[in-house]
């Protein structure tokens, strides 16, 4: 991602609370954008990659901050992609771009549909490129994506 994207990037990855992960380091090494894990009530800033922490749902609040929530898992997942996408649809409406990649359950499909219905640009990873096709296929089944693209096509579209 270019360093002056003037956008906020939110990454929701299913991961376990006590499982060691270097996901923040991986993102930091592959972008010149500032990368950090979300903490409760963080002010949302441009040119930042936010990673949702394990065992919390991330909500986007109307005051431009993140809210972390400890409610029950959605589709056996906490963080839930649906929770974040749905709150983004409510707060930002048509001003989002959302991409749903590989996953082992349906989390993210309903939230992506809400974003599409709000007028946001929604992209689904082509199942042929997915390590686990359940998540992108669920989004395709709901017609939640404006586009169904292969990985290289996604990155080409996002770099415009």
UniProtKB/TrEMBL annotation:
CheB-type methylesterase domain location is: 1-160
Pull one GO CC term from this UniProt entry.
cytoplasm
InterPro entries xrefs: CheB_C, Sig_transdc_resp-reg_Me-estase
Give the UniProt record's GO annotations in the biological process aspect: chemotaxis
EC assignment: the record states 3.1.1.61
Q: Does the keyword Plastid apply?
A: no
What is the name listed in the Swiss-Prot or TrEMBL entry for this protein? protein-glutamate methylesterase
Which organism's genome codes for this protein?
Mucilaginibacter yixingensis
């Amino acid at each position: 991602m270019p360093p002056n994207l003037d956008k906020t990037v939110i990454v929701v990855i299913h991961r376990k609370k006590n499982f060691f992960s270097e996901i923040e380091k991986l993102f930091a090494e592959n972008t010149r954008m500032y990368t950090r894990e979300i903490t409760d009530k963080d002010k949302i800033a441009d040119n930042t990659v936010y990673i949702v922490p394990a065992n919390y749902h991330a909500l986007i609040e109307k005051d431009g901050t993140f809210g972390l929530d400890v409610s029950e898992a959605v589709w056996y997942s906490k963080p839930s992609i649906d929770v974040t996408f749905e709150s983004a649809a409510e707060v930002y409406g048509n001003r989002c771009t959302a991409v749903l990649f590989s996953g082992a359950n349906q989390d993210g499909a309903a939230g992506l549909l809400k974003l599409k219905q709000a007028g946001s640009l929604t992209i689904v990873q082509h199942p042929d490129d997915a390590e686990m096709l359940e998540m992108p296929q669920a989004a395709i089944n709901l017609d939640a994506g404006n586009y169904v693209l292969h990985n290289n096509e996604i990155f080409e579209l996002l770099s415009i």
